Amino acid sequence: MRLTLQQTDIFEDRHHGQTETAQADMLKAVGVDSIDQLIDQTVPEAIRLEKPLNLPQPKSEMQFLADFKKLAGQNKVFKSYIGTGYYDTITPNVILRNILENPAWYTAYTPYQAEISQGRLEALLNFQTVISDLTGMDLANASLLDEGTAAAEAMHMLYALRPVARKNATTIFVSERCHPQTIDVVLTRATPLDINVLVGDHRTVDLTNGDIFGLLLQYPATDGEVFDYTDLIAAARELGITTAVAADLLALTLLKSPGEMGADVVVGSSQRFGVPMGYGGPHAAFFATRDAYKRQIPGRIIGVSQDAEGKPALRMALQTREQHIRREKATSNICTAQVLLAVMASSYAVYHGPSRLRAIAEHVHALTKAFATALRWSAHEVSTENYFDTVTVRVDDVESLKKSAKAAQINLRYLPDEEHVSVSFDEAKTLHDLTELLTVFGVKADMEVVLESLEITWPESLIRTSDFLTHPVFNTHHTEHEMLRYLKSLEEKDLSLVHSMISLGSCTMKLNATAEMIPVTWPEFGKIHPFAPKDQTVGYQQLFADLNAWLCEITGFAAMSLQPNSGAQGEYAGLMVIRAYHESRGDLHRNIALIPQSAHGTNPASAVMAGMKVIIVKCDDRGNIDVADLKAKAEQYSNDLSCLMVTYPSTHGVFEESIKEICAIIHQHGGQVYMDGANMNAQVGLTSPAAIGADVCHLNLHKTFCIPHGGGGPGMGPIGVASQLVPFLPGHVADSRGMKSHGAGAVSAAPYGSASILTISYAYIAMMGGEGLTNATKRAILNANYLKARLQGHYDTLYTGTNGRCAHEMIIDCRPFKAATGVEVEDIAKRLMDYGFHAPTVSFPVAGTLMIEPTESESKAELDRFAEAMIAIRNEIREIESGDADKASNVLKHAPHTATVALSDEWTRPYSREKAVYPLPQVRARKFWPSVSRIDSAYGDRNLVCACVPVDAYTDEVAEESTVAQQA
């Protein structure tokens, strides 16, 4: 037998779900001879790429990680004292290993199906409790993207809350002592809404100015000073002016809370609660407010409700606020949170508890106090009077200090006046670091004497006296053993990709390969401040350059911006680029956005945020854009047309053959075409946004390019643009372009958004190569059409292309079941839990339907398991149709079935326990048990509770579960 040396570690083979034999069987079921024949029948020839993707040859996992380690090594990890909202932190190893590096947490989906999401919902409820307790506010949401955009959301909310006396006010006052990147983002977001931003000294602001509707303050200020805003906020309220405060969570363990000062909104970042800096992200921002404003709060809120058995159960509350429902009337375009990072931050608080959190804060303040004291004793001028972790120092020779700091591998914040330096401490710094830093400043101090002098010297009015985190969950799990068990108990309540496929249409829940995830926690990527000097981030800059080039090749565009840190942020950034382009040409009046009926709910919400007026374009009976209606509206609004927002393939899962004509119509009338990149999973290597005629597109890297969903975040939404739009890409105050940019301005707090997770998409492309990426697209289309064939005769596919094919996803129609049997699409979604599956996308974009996307990563065996579950459910519906099952009391209406219900002493339902919980043999072999029965969301909204509930509410439940466990 002859031996040959050949590569065995081929990543593409690991990523794709099917073997060659399985693929042949699937092609036969679909009715084609080859996968290329299927693609020819699915993707219109007019938009097909003429040549294959020109990308580097794919690397094996081993080779990639070795090469990537060298690239990472080009980053220099200096000790950061830069601050400005980003701090080095210590991630407890029990959290690092069991959350951040755990696929059971990072592969979960947004908790829309609450019954199988109770673990992360509890962790998010903990997060909300941490935020509301520390800020002193009534309630908080389940996280936002970053501090800068959270502050912008606060501005929007304060604007919406203007009282009658100030209904025409258009100015928000922003303290000049807010973080520069926050001011930058607020300026960007204010412009299209015609909100005037007045930046100045909060101590001299004229509150009698009738045009001011709100204040934005920083606490502590960006230079470190701690101000008591109580009197200012009270004076503002007397005049009908509301106030938002951007606050530091760790400082709030020692400082009086903004809520106690009278703030209306408190925002900030939870990054320093155990989440690495990651060159800017991802981190979980927070947003807290008063109970009176709960229906205006952006983002998602986790609330306590009850299930069908009357037990406490969690779910996302007040869903009428969701932009998918309210569309252009939405208060925000927030589509994702930062769930994984919020879970880490809340777990950090659970692990440390109030006492250790306060001790950490005291450690940080003590280091800062010692530094300031030593400097003052050495005749240095420290301009900060009251401070927590940051002091500002006057320096005679800044250039000399820079050289000394660089030699010691220390980063400081050098202020624009070139006379002052700000220095920020964090929990990772030690007494040794302090001594080293003082040496850089040329100070030799007797540290024993300095340390003996340390005490809190703030005015009494600034010192926190109120309790926080008194709930038992924050006072129980302080040993690693207990914390490990608590995290495991939460994990076991959630279904994720570690259990089964999640066939969500438009969300692409594909493999998040371990090799892609490993570099995320390397310190060369995680421990770098977003404002570190560029010469320390050579590895990151190479990563950005490569990723830019690769994504440009894939999309056909001229340039990319990696700054937007979510898909919705990408939409907004793309529209702001179009807006800036029109303005540069003197077309200030172009503000009409044409949006198809089938568009994602974030599309119209983003358009309104970008200052545009939304005009809806009809769809025809086949779900395609009605070209005649589009043409008529383009002509009607020709003079004012700004853009068309289009998703391709369509949200209905079809490659519309008229797409080039559609784009040409828009261009003919002076508009630009924005393509929503949600469905790029069906384009890569076969066609591209540029090929169809689009001018700008955002890419959901958390979909097509393998960044995991993390239970509802993090995400990344970089935008690609055609050549005419390149000059208008977002700038950033920390970038060399900064405020001089003609572009959209900053759309995220950090220059490169959530930079550390760009490593995942980089790894995916590097290991797949051009041919592998193209094959992924083909197999995603094959998998969808295979499922369509398997379900034929059981469910009707709502929309297909000319040849009867779907793209990478399809919509099955469940509406006929309701009239005949009373079964609604929600019943099917809940029954799928009993089979061990997460439901496909429910009632979007068509009410009463399921949108299914299997992705290329799922094997034929897993597709068959899902198909068999769906067919079995259809047969259960047939039992109701035939009268063999009761219309009101059946397995669908009572689903999901918990172990508690199945093993109860009494069973009065007209079907067997086995049918309820083991409907197929495959389920018995790998059973996933939902932890709660169907949740009554209406009850939770009527009785809104958004923080940890008293333990006695769970006492009976815990006792009953214990009994059930013993019986099992």
Provide structural commentary.
With 968 residues, this protein is of the alpha/beta class. It has 35 helices and 27 strands. Helix 3 crosses helix 26, helix 5 runs parallel beside helix 17 (480-491) and helix 8 (147-160) packs across helix 9. It is globular and about 85 Å long. The chain starts with 10 loop residues before the first helix and ends with a helix.
Question: In what order do the strands lie side by side in the largest sheet?
Answer: 2-8-7-6-5-3-4
Q: What integer value in Å does the Rg equal?
A: 28 Å
Number of strands: 27
Kindly name the structural category: alpha/beta
Distance between the termini: 55 Å
Considering DSSP H and I runs of 4 or more, what fraction of the residues is helical?
A: 25-40%
Shape category: globular
Q: Residue ranges: pLDDT <50 for 5 or more in a row?
A: 737-741, 954-968
SS strand fraction: 5-15%
Number of helices: 35
Q: Give the biggest sheet.
A: 7 strands, mixed
Average pLDDT score:
94
